Fold these 2 entries.
Entry 1:
Amino acid sequence: MITLKINGQDHNVDVEPDMPLLWVLRDKLGMTGTKFGCGIAQCGACTVQINGVATRSCVTPAAAVVGAEIKTIEALTDSGNSVIQKAWIDHEVPQCGYCQPGMMMAADALLKDNPHPTDEDINAAITNICRCGTYPRVRKAIHAAANNT
Amino acid sequence: MSTELDLSRRSFLLTSSLIGSAFVLGFHLPANAANTPDTEINAWIVISADDTVTIRVAHSEMGQGSFTALTMLVAEELNADWSKVKAAFVDPRENITRKKIYGSMSTIASNAVRKSQEYLRNAGASAREMLLSAAAQKWKVPANECVATRGVITHTPSKRTLSYGAVAAAAAKLTPPEKVTLKDPVTWTIAGKPTKRLDIPDKVHAKPIYAIDVVLPDMLHAAIVQCPVFGGKLRSYDESSLRNHKGITKVVPLENAVAVIGESYWQAQRAAKALAITWDEGANADVSSAGIATFIDNGLAQAEAPSARNDGDTKGALAKAAKVVEATYRVPFLSHAPMETQNATLRFNPDGTVDVWAPTQNTEAVMSTVAKIAGIDPLKVTVHITYSGGGFGRRYGPFGTSDYLEQATKIAMAVDKPVKMIWSREEDIQHDYYRPVSAAKFTAGLDTAGNLVAWNTRISGHSLLSMGNPAAIKNNMDEGFLIAFTDNPYAVENLHLDYAMRNTPIPVGYWRSTHHSQNGYFRECFFDEIARAAGQDPYEYRRKYLAKAPKQLAVLDTVAKAIGWDTPAPKGIFRGIAQVDAYESFVATAVEISLNADGTPRVHRVISAIDCGTVVNPDSTRSQMEGSVVWALTAGLYDQITIKNGRVEQGNFDTYPMLRLADMPEVEIHLVPSGGFFGGVGEPGAAAVMPAVCNAMLAATGKPVRELPVIKHNAATA
């Protein structure tokens, strides 16, 4: 049994220590906002924040984040319409939408670190894959969110 | 409050905003709008006493926005109050019990708006007339004294009003009008106006709206390993290889795969990778890309092939030509790689019914596939309709593309609990229905003045019709494979086109923009080679041969003007241009690139214009055009599926890379609808992008890019 602090709440989970955080969230806690896309830290659909840092949960063992502050997309939603989510809605960013929770978690972490990122900062920080091709709108929405914080 | 899902036709609605609740509650759905009675005016429209209008959508939503666009078209003719409109997916069982009243539910070939706009608008107009008649009868006044605006009917002389909800029950009892007149789109107030997509809030709030998100009590998880060689079978496996694995419940053998069932997907997947399996690799174990390339090239070289066009005397004109231009172009297999990998969850219930959740482009195919495999009546299959995390043609349904559903059904039949099966990314990329491999061999003739007098095209490649409907193939011809050449818009007097069908052992399928993805590239790049041989500007040379193709010309002119074709490009920047019409829309793209030190292009700007006739939702049309740019650049710059020992060599995004934000050019979209028709918008935008990029590379280097992906071209010419 390990204890994970997710979105400010402690969760006791009976899992193998090397089970990736992604699957603890999805299959053990029913928190399905965090998505599976590749399993090898390539696509970023599984992005969560560990102590504020955007992290690919598909390769993050549960045991490695015991004691850490884990933040998932559900925290953004539960906070009401977060600045990021409002910008995402205003700019109609999603198409299929599947990669967007990870995209938003990466964007949220970027803005916490760097409230007014340049295009180059965005290029460096947002490495998530979107197969539908929402990148131009992701960029616009991040700039809009930066101007609203 | 919630109520048991009632399968009667009045309440089979699953509204978008309720999907999340549906998951949480299993198959319980919240009651519709506080128990207000609902009235079905016709198959597409339900009006509640509280004036809520529910519009049914038969097509799937996989990101292309038609869930909203189709709803807008009905609401427009209905004169509904958009703020009171909801959209709801049609239960595919209704299309059986109501004798195909919903038409085709397949969502493919940019067809959702294009193929259903007329009957949907008719449904809206018909309902509007019935509501007006019902109000007129209630007031005992002539119907032509009444008008309907934003869900309210007004008797103009007396200024009395009635809402749609108040007359819906009476309207439903009336006979629908025999004929309705559809509005001129210039008078539209809902359709044609930028409208927020209905699916976006749930997507931004990460609601459980995808099949992969379903959570059911006692649910188990399945991972799968399929025979890596196409056409191979399972011979045996050694379950003892899993003896140290925790959380594993069962191993289920399938004809060409093994499924491992566990308490979590991760445990099941880890065990599936560790399972010792022996395959009967079958006849294709020595298939390789090199062998396929030779096979395709033989198609180019064979003396005769069935022709699809033979205008004038191409052979004679080529013999007399002052200059002959020759080139051979090639493209590889490509994978769809939707972000939500193939998956399906099934629950077999004690009463003989089945619940299923699966990403799809065709909910009818989900129902019929599960019913066929399980040997039950399709009416016993409840398809819980979800948004699909991409589709791009992979989840079309017919000719094998329901493979993941067939597997999940068989797995669930072998397990006494609900099972969610998920394909790993590797399984998804290695077991696809690929964009076919293809090649084109061109010969063009110019006269002494540089006029294009003859154009001969030989196409060799793997026919999609051979997968979809082989019985329709006559004389080894698949004309669909030749699109963009059969309807080549350039006016050339002597034009010959033929096709050498070369079907490989690799499964092929529809892939966003399908045949236009290769034929647009072949045609438009070779056209630049012709213009260059003629010593003429590629844009002006196109204009000359499009003089009688005004729609193609208009989009071409739009992008040329927008990129400043008549002014010199900045130092180190090179421009390219191309135009391709597809799915009844007309598209042109102009780009600006520079060259990296290794010769690969850096794409700075992409400007695309589309004439789709009539724009239904401008912003989502733009987003489809933007997405099409990414789709085309990803494939054209980086991607290929190659085969070695009968296996796909790529497996994940490390070997099948995707364009990312840092490499994203500036994109500018021009909507230039000319009216009078409804063209597709999901796919046409992809076709002209890579030829424009490759033409810019030709302008930069003088060397044509005759093979995709560009990285392969660069490796070959380095």
Note: Residues 254 and 271 of chain B are 16 Å apart (CA to CA).
Entry 2:
Amino acid sequence: MKWLLFPILFITLSGIRAQTTKDLIIEFSIPPVDKTIELEKLRFYITNIQLYSEDSIVFEELESVHLIDLMESQNSISVAFPETVGFNSIHFNLGVDSLTNVSGIYSGDLDPTKGMYWAWQSGYINFKLEGKHPLSQARNQSFQFHLGGYLPGQYSIQQLKFATNNSLKLNVQFDINSFFETIDFSKENTIMSPGENAVKLSEKIVTYFKLNE
Amino acid sequence: MNKNLLLFIFFIGISSLLCSVKFKPNDEIHLFSIPENWPIPVYDFNKMPLDSKIIDLGRHLFYDPILSLDNSVSCSSCHLSFTAFTHVDHALSHGIGDRIGTRNSPVLINLAWNKHFMWDGAINHLEVQAIAPITHPSEMGEDLLNVLAKLKQSKKYPSKFFHAFGDSTISSKQLLLALTQFQLTLVSANSKYDKVKRKEEIFTKQEKSGYKLFQKHCASCHTEPLLTSGEFENNGLPIDNTLNDLGRGKITQNPSDNYTFKVPTLRNIEFSFPYMHDGRFKSLNEVIEHYSSGISHTPNLSSKLKNGINLTSNQKVDIIAFLLTLTDKEFLFNPDYQFTRD
């Protein structure tokens, strides 16, 4: 009778597959920027999306890596999760975790041709912001913030947590104007490698991601 | 039908299925095997088993200047098989347009056991290593997307990629995996030293004396059997003010790593001159002389070298005699590692 196992297994597996899911849409945006500032690039990684009910994790997205590019209107993530799951908070990372950083080559959003990988020193750029600011002392009044780093002392990955009540659509706004106000562009306009400056700026930037109710 | 027979067929089916999944190519064993008494490789072969078709593609790419901006420089320009895959006779290696870099190109030997790549360990995984030389302005000066575009337009590569990966998209992942698989096959484990270890040959008296001295003075960093610990050390080279190379310190930004560089393997050292990260020594004599009388007490000098290595002139000759037993002619002249047309 053992041969019966096979069809039973098959039916069970298809049953799991057929489980109905819901989609959670997370949209990222920025408010209109002051006309004196020119934005050229704004890209970042959103990874390890988790749904929580109270203090326990109820859903974790597999292979959870999303490259957001707000200049190319690649600004939304769709997360399919089981219908039965209820949650009241969502957690995700701004940046690529250490394990992924040391595990070789990837395709998709982690493809090194996406402009978010440092060639000469292995590692992903978690957050990339480029443009021109009237106060910048750099060439062409440009500013370039390439933030990343996963080594001890250079760890720049940040976590975001938002309370939400089973809402299927979240709008997360990066309050870029308030962030710009904190930067002295005459001194701080270029970060291109991991290190203390990248860590500090990453810690600051994450505080300007807000949930739009 | 007989129940037992059905069961038997079922198990045969399942086991052949399992086998085909686990050992995709039948010749995996011949493509790579761990030499006797060697540690487990650092590279995770489970992720993607070696495949002779992918290795072949990687070999073609390794020898193809299409990877460089002006189609003039290939990987092999700085990593020549006959010289243990390094840039022989160049202290600092050069790339396109005769642009000179700041380091001596390292040998490509037993890379499956490497934890870090480059002299400063800037690269953390073999699969992403090639991105650095392909895109570095003083090496191949190219852009990955442009390389992919050139490969797609070539006559040769779409079919080669299809043959290797079952599709002809030609992605950066496929390009880098092919280069990785070829380089993983570059295993050197058949020197006289290895044969002595396997009791197939014996050292001469001089080599034996050199080996004992080596074990006493050198093996704490050049650990057997790979002849490197893979760690970073400052071996007391006077600082070259024209380069001011901080080595590992530039990567970790930890001052206690300044002036440390990755310990290189000594395998095939007879052919991998010039020596040191900046190629400052042309001969093994100069190298031994450095350790015995040239140690400079720069910051973070390896604790093992605080007092230098005191050697008589006979002992120096003996150590060099031992170092020559690390030459692996089968590796250096392996036809599978060389340029191929088809």
Note: The first strand of chain B starts at residue 232 and ends at 233.
